[in-house]
Amino acid sequence: MRGTNPLPLTSYLLPLTSYLIPLPLLNLELVTIGTELLLGFTLDSNGSEIARALGEHGVRVVRRTSVADREADIAAAVAEALDRTGAVVTTGGLGPTRDDITKRAVAELFGAPLVFDEGVWQTVVARFAKLGRVPGASNRVQAEVPRGATVLPNRWGTAPGIWLEGARGLVVMLPGVPYEMRNLLRHEVVPRLAARAQGSVVRSRVVRTTGIPESVLAERLGDVETAIAPLTLAYLPGEAGVDLRLTAWDLEPAEADDRLRGAADLLHSRAGDHIYGEGDTDLAAIVLDAARARGIRLAVGESCTGGLLAKRLTDTPGSSDVMAGGVVAYDNTVKAAFLDVPPELIERHGAVSEEVVGAMALGAARRFGVDLAAAVTGIAGPSGGTAEKPVGTVWLATALGGQVEATRVLLPGPRANIRARSAQAALFLLFRRLQPA
Question: What is the pLDDT at residue 342?
């Protein structure tokens, strides 16, 4: 219902202890709401993040369900999940538009009518004011809260989270916007749920590798899976390389952390210099840190990657003190004019060659007056390949103090994958060149 309620919301609150569910081992289900998820226009990144964050604190997501923006579907999914586990987290459907109906569907399940919360409304008004705007009438729905619910303040958006608990169980409603969901999860939800979970946790540690195929990496690691038991190891190949995910299941937090650290150390000893970091570490950030530590500035000269290498480097905050600039020399005349590549080199060896990529790296270093430069040239396809130089052939080079090191790789996949893998390979070349002698 809409309009200002004549009584303050606190008048309807029952003591929280009267609703507490005994959950020594907290299993819950996740219901992600949005027709766009079912149509395939939006990937459910929220679900993965929630499951990972909660698992680290002993709260296990045992089932994930996605439903459309239909009230009956939302109510049915939440009701079935409550019947199975008694605890549900939902994402999506808390905005101001007509398809944002999650609160209404869940409130009806609990017999808790929506009431207008003036405090939430003033928070919405204040947030709009900071943006130089005034909220419209449709935004008032974001200040409606199921009677008896706890508001989870959203300092990152306008839709607050909702913690609703009663005889049917517990439902935690979070907005679908990933940035808002992530912060509410971290600051408001995880502490509350972790307090109810048992001591054991499910924790993972990711070790990141690049420049080595999955099969070769598996041969290097050998019997490591036996050595790290009861931990498990998963190989996760992608454009950036192969991530190695170690997982500790149902262990006490301290033991899980110790075992994960020991297993990660073992992976480091086996995979060697193909490991560049852990967790969400980005290779571009590692390269920039290494260059910064040595007082070295960087430049790039790119052909087939079309600026992707420069983008990877400049996506990292603070890159301006290291990254001087780059040239996208897609056309051969640009290679000659802006990177000083002799035209006869291109004529004699072709644009995709060791000689040309080395000249590009030297030219980029001279052009920007830096100590270290990287260059990349290749055939990204789908056409342009030959028997001698098939699609996926890429030459990469670095020039440090006038000394060139070049390498050839043959990369799989369609055009976008080859370009992305080429940029990663160039970063790995820089990474190696920056290591102490």
Answer: 97
3-state secondary structure of 132: coil
Q: What is the crossing angle of helices 253-271 and 214-221, to 10°?
A: 110
Structural contact between residues 154 and 180, judged by C-beta atoms closer than 8 angstroms: yes
Q: Are 75 and 106 in contact (CB under 8 A)?
A: yes
Q: Which residues are within 8 A (CB) of 88 and not within 5 positions of it... i.e. 6 or more apart? A: 28, 29, 30, 31, 78, 81, 82, 169, 170, 171, 172
CA distance linking residue 124 with residue 103, whole number of Å: 17
Matching residue, tokens 């947030």: 127
C-alpha 112/C-alpha 177 separation (Å) is: 25
Answer with the one of 165, 194, 223 that is the final residue of a domain.
194
| Mean pLDDT of successive 10-residue stretches along the chain, which has 437 residues | 34 35 67 94 91 89 95 96 96 87 95 94 91 88 94 92 95 95 95 84 94 94 94 94 94 94 96 93 97 97 98 97 97 97 97 98 98 97 95 98 96 95 97 90
How many domains does the chain contain in total?
Answer: 3
- Residue 1 is assigned to a structural domain of this protein: no
Provide the token pair at 339.
């990177």
Q: Are 91 and 32 in contact (CB under 8 A)?
A: yes
Please report, for the domain that includes residue 239, its CATH number: 3.30.70.2860
Residue 27's Cβ-count burial label (10 Å; 0-12, 13-18, 19+) is middle
Task: Report how far residue 66's alpha carbon sits from residue 76's, in angstroms, rounded to the nearest whole number.
Answer: 12
The residues near 180 (Cβ < 8 Å, ≥ 6 apart) are 154, 156, 157, 159, 174
Structure tokens given for 163: 């913690």
Task: Tell me whether residue 128 is in a domain.
Answer: yes
